[in-house]
Design a protein that fits this description.
The chain is an alpha+beta fold. It folds into five domains: about 10-235; about 240-345, 2-Layer Sandwich (Beta-Lactamase); about 365-455, Beta-Lactamase (2-Layer Sandwich); about 480-580, Beta-Lactamase (2-Layer Sandwich); about 595-755, Beta-Lactamase. About 50% of the residues lie in helices and about 20% in strands. The chain is built from 19 helices and 20 strands. It has helices at about 10-75, 80-100, 105-130, 135-145, 145-190, 195-240, 260-265, 270-275, 340-360, 380-385, 390-395, 455-470, 490-495, 500-505, 520-530, 585-610, 615-630, 670-675, 725-770, and strands at about 245-250, 255, 300-305, 315-325, 330-340, 365-370, 375-380, 415-420, 425-440, 440-450, 475-480, 485-490, 535-540, 555-565, 570-580, 635-645, 650-655, 680-685, 695-705, 705-715. It has a five-stranded antiparallel β-sheet with strand order 2-1-5-4-3. A five-stranded antiparallel β-sheet has the order 7-6-10-9-8. A five-stranded antiparallel β-sheet has the order 12-11-15-14-13, sandwiched between helices. α1 (about 10-75) runs antiparallel to α2 (about 80-100), α1 (about 10-75) packs parallel to α3 (about 105-130) and α2 (about 80-100) runs antiparallel to α3 (about 105-130). It starts with 8 loop residues before the first helix and ends with a helix. Residues about 1-10, about 290-295, about 545-550 and about 680-690 have low confidence and may be disordered.
């Protein structure tokens, strides 16, 4: 049996010593290598972390900017909460960059980058707020603003500078660490060049392999952690967002639907994936629906109407993007969202715009829209009719061309008047009003022109009528519905004696004399309350005419016409009265009437007195009864006929109606009667029972210059003295005087005849006796 070779003890000891020394050297070398390797690893790891931070900051910055730009492009609000995770990660990344800066220059660059990031964040938050408020135009303007671009460029510049300075510092540290490692290696090589050559090679290989494994492991751990974090963030967003995400293949089969679909439609993912087409309504918009069964190579979006699970219809907008694998169309990825409120708002806006357009088109006034330069943007049909131009002829031309005056359209007072210039050169009076509005940052003005030609003509007509009223000889009175005077013309003051200022707010009853025919005013008000025009005669009194016992000149007759004025609702708003002085006409009518009455009385009395079949007393009684009973005469239906006894002042009351008038004769009645003029005497006979204050007509009965008696008639206390009536009484007295005188003559003749007959008989008797 072959023995194994053995090693001498001392050699073994030496070997052991060598081994121990080798092990000691190995341990020392391993320690030194590990120390310097770890230092090198720390530097490399820090360099990798710095580069990753720079890339992550730039990536997050571009990602958030693209989200904001995409939201602005789609005119879709982007909630602050949906970007909070990205913004918080950028904050943490900047803080980590400041903390991991390898030197002061790199830290200064990181601090400057953080300051630019804060300004950039403020502008991004303003953009998000504008998007949430729906002001997409302003958001787009802010996204494209120079200020945002400046801060983003500054931010990127400082991040690049931070990355460059960090790389430089890390490179210098790596070089220094490598030098130290090489020195240690050279010493180790020198000590172990014979014994540990192979070990050194193995150890270096192991070291390099170990370092590589460690780097790979660290990178893998970091990537795994970042992937898990991103996956969790995306899952949280997908499951809780207001929109749902789906993916379907080229056959139209859903491969994935986010749980957020239940927040949008009320259906579960299984319900939607199994039979989503049955949830579509019959709305015409669904004819344009294009799902995976009609895939297109370009991103597209469309709106469909579905039945929400609660039974109400809802509008849903779908955004679909195709994806490819190896150049082959494989399916689509889509996002669905509830746009019911937006569609309804758009519909209401369209309806409102249509109503406004219809109102503008049908407006009775000319409506013109101009830009801030005063150029015409719109021209409604009434404007075309008013000015004679079509919209095509005046579009983008200055509105000032259509107005004769210089008008500042941004400061037009309400109801300002101007002169319009028509296409044919004719002028038209206009009332102008204007209003400004701001649309998408542009100032627009809406100018309304109202044709006031009719109003001007009406004003001229009103002035003409007012002049005519003031020049009219008829009195004009305008009152409110309660009868308070609001206007009188100059003829009123001349007719009544009342000044215009004196009668304002007074009632026209101040003109009443109290002598108007009873019932006239009642008839007048009944007609006016029925809304009818009333016309009639009134006996009025002039100013300061306090009673009816004053001079007749204070009274005057008018022909009054009163017309009610109605508003559009038929309500009486005023009364207009026109009074014409007809005093002369009425007096002439009265004189004619009295003349007819006088002739009638004369004829009747003459007829009664010429009756030969009755006695004088009977005829006088008939005459007295006729006179006191005749209505037109101002009599109290009382009176008597007094006959003179011989040539004395004594009288005999032949006929009486009512109270005896014998005792009311004045002592000088005979001398009064001898003048042949009827006398009116006032008498307040209060001692007569049941009698009113009155006066007397003393009518002398004269014939052939001799007074045969008197006719006494009761009359009003203050009767109207009329020459015609007085002449009638005078003629009546002559007729009565003639009747009395004739009766006296007849009685005398009869007595003479009887005396002659008696004398004749006596003479015959004497002759007979003598015979």
């Amino acid at each position: 049996m072959e023995e194994r070779p053995t090693i001498p003890r001392n050699l073994m000891a030496l070997v052991n010593v060598a081994v121990l020394l080798t092990l000691a050297l190995v341990v020392l070398v391993v320690f030194l290598v590990q120390h310097f390797s770890l230092d090198l690893y720390r530097i490399q790891t820090s360099s990798f972390a710095v580069q990753r931070l720079s890339q992550e900051i730039l990536f997050l910055d571009e990602m958030l900017a693209s989200d904001i730009a995409f939201a602005a492009l789609l005119s879709d609000p982007l909630p602050l909460g949906s970007t909070s995770v990205l913004r918080q990660r950028r904050v943490r990344a900047h803080e980590a960059a400041i903390d991991s800066a390898p030197n002061d220059d790199a830290r200064e660059a990181a601090i400057l980058a953080n300051a630019a990031f804060e300004q950039l964040s403020l502008l991004e938050e303003q953009t998000l707020l504008l998007l949430n408020e729906g002001d997409f135009a302003a958001a787009t303007k802010l996204i494209d603003s120079d200020e945002l671009k400046k801060w983003r460029d500054d931010h990127h510049t400082h991040i690049d500078r931070f990355s460059t300075l960090s790389k430089g510092a890390m490179g210098a540290a790596l070089v220094s660490s490598s030098k130290r490692l090489r020195i240690a290696q050279f010493g180790t090589y020198f000590c172990l060049i014979l014994m540990l050559g192979l070990w050194l090679v193995v150890m270096r290989a192991l070291r390099h392999h170990y370092v590589s494994l460690r780097e790979t492991q660290v990178a893998l751990v970091m990537l795994t952690s970042d992937l898990e974090e991103r996956t969790e963030e995306q899952r949280f967003i997908f499951e809780n967002a207001g929109d749902f995400v789906y993916r379907c293949n080229d056959r139209g089969v859903f491969e994935y639907i986010s749980p957020a679909i239940s927040n949008v439609t009320g259906y579960s993912t299984e319900e939607w994936a199994s039979d989503f087409r049955s949830y579509l309504t019959h709305h015409p918009v669904n004819l344009e629906m294009r799902l995976s069964a009609a895939l297109e190579p370009e991103p597209t979006h469309f709106v469909v109407e579905i039945w929400h699970k609660n039974g109400h219809p809802m509008m849903m907008e779908l955004h679909e993007t195709p994806y490819f694998e190896e150049g082959k169309l494989f399916g689509v990825v889509g996002v669905g969202r509830n746009v019911t409120q937006r569609v309804e708002a758009q519909q209401r806006a369209r309806e409102s715009a249509a109503r406004i357009r219809a109102i503008v088109e049908a407006a009775p006034d000319a409506i013109v829209t101009i830009d801030q330069e005063g150029s015409i943007e719109s021209f409604n049909p009434e404007a075309e009719r008013l000015f004679g131009f079509s919209f095509a002829e005046v579009e983008n031309t200055p509105l000032s061309n259509l107005v004769a005056e210089q008008v500042e359209w941004t400061d037009v007072a309400e109801g300002r008047e101007a002169t319009g210039v028509k296409k044919d050169g004719s002028l038209v009076p206009l009332a102008i009003s204007a209003a400004q509005t701001n649309i998408a940052g542009l100032t627009m003005s809406t100018v309304i022109f109202h044709n006031i030609s009719e109003r001007k003509r009406a004003e001229a007509e009103t002035k003409r009528l007012a002049h005519a009223l003031e020049s009219s000889a008829d009195a004009v009175i305008i009152t409110d519905p309660s009868g308070s005077i609001e206007y009188v013309n100059a003829a009123f003051s001349e007719m009544t004696g009342w000044g215009a200022d004196e009668v304002l707010a007074k009632n026209p009853r101040i003109l009443q004399s109290g002598l108007t025919v009873p019932g006239t005013y009642q008839e007048m008000w009944e007609a006016l309350r029925r809304g009818e025009v009333w016309s009639g005669r009134l006996l009025n009194k002039r100013k300061d005419s306090a009673s009816r016992f004053e001079d007749d000149s204070e009274l005057y007759w008018v022909h009054s016409t009163i017309s009610p004025v109605h508003d559009v609702a038929g309500k009486v708003t005023a009364f207009v009265e026109v009074q014409r002085d007809i005093t002369a006409k009425v007096e002439e009518e009265i004189r004619t009437s009295r003349s007819q009455v006088s002739s009638e009385v004369r004829s009747a009395v003459a007829h009664i007195l010429h009756s030969e079949d009755t006695s004088l007393q009977t005829r006088l009684a008939d005459v007295l009864a006729y006179v006191v009973g005749f209505m037109p005469l101002e009599s109290h239906r009382q009176g008597s006929v007094l006959a003179r006894l011989g040539n004395t002042d004594e009288v005999e009351e032949l006929v009486v109606i009512g109270y005896s008038c014998k005792n009311v004769l004045p002592e000088n009645w005979l001398s009064l009667c001898e003048e042949g003029i009827p006398e009116i005497s006032p008498c307040y006979c209060l001692d007569h029972e049941n009698d009113e204050p009155h006066g007397h007509y003393l009518v002398p009965m004269r014939y052939a210059g001799q007074v045969h008696g008197a006719l006494v008639l009761y009359c009003m206390a203050d009767p109207v003295t009329d020459s015609i009536e007085m002449e009638m009484y005078e003629d009546l007295g002559e007729l009565l005087g003639y009747a009395v005188a004739t009766d006296e003559v007849q009685r005398t003749l009869t007595a003479a005849r009887l005396a002659a007959e008696e004398a004749n008989r006596n003479d015959r008797a004497i002759e007979f006796y003598e015979l």
